[in-house]
Design brief:
CATH class: Alpha Beta
Bound molecules: 5-O-phosphono-beta-D-ribofuranosylamine
Number of helices: 6
Strand content: 25-35%
Number of strands: 8
Order of helices and strands: EHEEHEHEHEHEEH
């Protein structure tokens, strides 16, 4: 069976990474097996590193402070990804804007916790919660040089019920992410 390799990039908790490890990594689908061949974190204290260890996977820690420019940082991660043979890169909470050095060489998707094009950036959950909108949601999109600006692949939303607390809203976002991201990776690769 064909093995399709993916890379996952993260900066923080890594709950989406763990969910991919549980539902996608080393699993067989109708036409292929999918394997994580590369993990990269730009933060050495990212909890995702511990989550990956439980699955026997080590993470490349690439800190931007060791690079003189965004381009040289991106060049390094492109090199690591290419070496790993990954054909799809999943940004799961990777908190950096990538340059064309990355976007022109790598096929990547990003998970974002709002209904794009609304609420781009790092405070998407707070901004959508406070927006007065009656729905919240998530997006998965192709990655280009613009912050959360690549072509949208898929989205899902939920009704924001009256008096919903911020914690409930946030929980709902993460539950949707954990459902939609693995499904999207499988849809892209298993066809
Ligand atoms: C997710 O909400 C994702 O949409 C955003 O960063 C968060 C990462 O969460 N880009 P985790 O590290 O996977 O728990």
């Amino acid at each position: 069976m064909v093995v399709k390799k993916i890379a996952v990039l993260f900066s923080g908790s890594g709950s989406n990474l763990e969910n991919i490890l549980k539902k996608v990594h080393d699993k067989r689908f109708s036409t292929c097996k999918i394997e994580i061949s590369c993990l990269i974190s730009d933060r050495k204290n990212a909890y995702g590193i511990q989550r990956a260890k439980k699955y026997g996977l080590s993470t490349n820690i690439i800190e931007h402070k060791n690079f003189s420019s965004r381009e040289s940082f991106d060049k390094k991660i492109v090199e690591i990804i290419k070496k790993s043979g990954a054909e799809l890169v999943v940004l799961a909470g990777f908190m950096r804007i990538l340059t064309s050095e990355f976007t022109q060489n790598i096929n990547a998707i990003n998970l974002h916790p709002s209904l794009l094009p609304l609420f781009k950036g790092a405070n998407a959950i707070e901004e959508s919660y406070n927006s007065g909108m009656k729905v919240g949601g998530i997006s998965i999109h192709h990655v280009n040089e613009k912050l959360d600006g690549g072509e949208i692949i898929t989205q899902e939303c939920f009704k924001k019920i009256d008096n919903m607390s911020f914690e409930e809203f946030e929980k709902k976002i993460h539950a949707l992410e954990h459902k939609l991201l693995p499904k999207t990776i499988i849809d892209i690769l298993d066809s």
